[in-house]
Specification:
The radius of gyration is 21 Å and the shape is globular. The chain is built from 16 helices and 15 strands. A nine-stranded mixed sheet has the order 14-13-12-11-7-10-9-8-15. Strands 3-2-1-4-5-6 form a six-stranded parallel sheet, sandwiched between helices. The chain is of the alpha/beta class.
Length: 449
């Protein structure tokens, strides 16, 4: 079945083996056996990617909800693939799945609260871990992910697909060819109207109703909305920070040194509920998290970054990327590039499209056909492929544990800054000094890493 038809019908460089000594380079094997913890909407996206590959066998799935397992079974049946072994019955059911010795890698796509424990248990069971964001909810969680990865020698990879977004990778290619000169300032964020995701009617995943919670809704509204009631801070920082890190060699000769965060008032979600259902009790819920959280970061080599979380107000989708150096800049919001002395007119934006086409990343040029129709404009194919190839070749994953926790730790650090009255916070050195000698390896060529 063609990739586009299948997905429509069925609703993801070696950092150096010195980092994780027990993972060594080896010959590529023919097939990787994977287990999945969580087969809700996002988990089934990753299932789709696995079912389309001849080098992947999905041998086990785990979920607490029969509705998700049922939809997952339908994916396998439509693909003509053997049904995997199922594990269910409670939040600890995944532990029985991890006892399957044939499983080499685990995809985790559960609610954020469970990521840390499931990833730790998977690494201790000797499995590669590909985990959806976030790595954890506390700073202790993030340190523990690093410690367990180092102790077990197992790779942990945050499945941050925007690192592989085509325009981002083309601009990365431009930056590496010095088109922007020396980089000075970068911006990014999660700027996406998620109100239809955070509320529904219990029958439709998106765009209907104003309910949330496990009893009255389905999908992410069952759990994600509650985080905006209980927490402050940037609760989804990886879309903004993760893709920018290779531009300025974070953890590879550079590091983030400190940050400060600011939060606006919280009005968007209540306003949305009241607009769709005037007088509904959920309009009076005390949403603790501000509508817009802005985090400013300093780097050891002098660059600054600005990361925003903006998901509670009406707005067109944009991740707000800006890459600026001594010779010019790119912004994705207005899809423009300006290179001093090379743009068509002085002080006039060029449409980004012509530059992005010229400097299309070799990875996209090589694998464009394979990625056609994959989720999120093809990004899902690349991030999933990087994870699978790392297992096949017994290599470090292209996004390693240090990168993973760095882009995720913004959550607890931003929360602490806000609750302390916007006080600056030192950023942990998760590499314990290795950043000084480690080299940037992400997407240096068309190898898939």
């Amino acid at each position: 079945m063609h990739r586009r038809s299948f997905i429509k019908n069925s609703t993801m460089a070696a950092a150096g083996f010195a980092i994780l000594p027990s993972i060594t380079f080896g010959m590529s094997k023919s097939k990787v056996k994977l287990g999945y913890i969580g087969v809700g909407l996002r988990g089934r996206n990753h299932i789709s990617e696995g079912l389309l590959r001849d080098d992947v066998e999905i041998v086990a799935i785990c979920d607490t909800q029969e509705s998700s397992l049922k939809l997952c079974r339908e994916q396998f049946q439509q693909a003509g693939k053997k049904l995997p072994k199922e594990f269910t019955g409670g939040v600890d059911a995944y532990k029985r799945m991890l006892e399957m010795k044939e499983i080499e890698g685990v995809i985790i796509a559960t609610p954020w609260t469970f990521h840390h424990d499931q990833a730790v248990d998977a690494m201790q069971a000797g499995k590669y871990v590909g985990c959806e964001v976030l790595a954890g909810l506390t700073l202790e969680d993030h340190w523990n992910i690093v410690n367990v990865s180092e102790k077990t020698g197992m790779s942990y990879m945050t499945l941050e697909n925007v690192c592989y977004r085509r325009d981002v990778m083309a601009v990365l290619n431009m930056a590496r060819q010095n088109l922007f000169g020396e980089l000075v300032h970068l911006e990014g964020g999660y700027q996406h109207d998620l109100r239809p995701v955070l509320f529904n009617d219990g029958a439709h995943f998106y765009g209907h109703g104003v309910e949330f919670g496990p009893d009255k809704s389905i999908g992410e509204a069952q759990w994600r909305t509650q985080h905006n009631i209980d927490m402050v801070g940037d609760i989804y920082p990886t879309h903004g920070l993760g893709p920018l890190m290779p531009f300025i060699n974070i953890n590879r000769g550079n590091r983030i040194t400190n940050l400060v965060s600011f939060s606006s008032k919280a009005k968007g979600l209540s306003s949305y509920v009241n607009k769709l259902s005037p007088g509904h009790k959920n309009a009076s819920v005390n949403f603790k998290n501000g509508d817009i959280t802005t985090t400013l970061l300093n780097c050891a080599n002098g660059e600054t970054l600005s990361i925003q979380h903006d998901t509670h107000l009406p707005r067109p989708y944009s991740l707000g990327f800006r890459v600026q150096g001594t010779e010019g800049l790119w912004t994705d919001a207005n899809q423009s590039i300006y290179i001093e002395g090379k743009s068509k007119n002085e002080d006039v934006w060029d449409p980004a499209e012509e530059w992005l086409k010229k400097y299309d990343h070799p990875l996209w040029k090589k694998y464009e056909k394979q990625a056609e129709g994959a989720g999120h404009g093809g990004m899902d194919w690349f991030v999933f492929n990087g994870f699978v190839e790392a297992i096949k070749q017994k290599r470090q994953t292209p996004i390693d544990v240090y990168d993973s926790v760095t882009m995720s730790a913004i959550l607890p650090l931003s929360a602490k800054s806000i609750t302390e009255g916007n006080m600056p916070q030192d950023f942990p050195d998760f590499t314990r000094g290795k950043w000084k000698t480690m080299k940037n390896t992400f997407a240096l060529n068309d190898s898939g890493f």
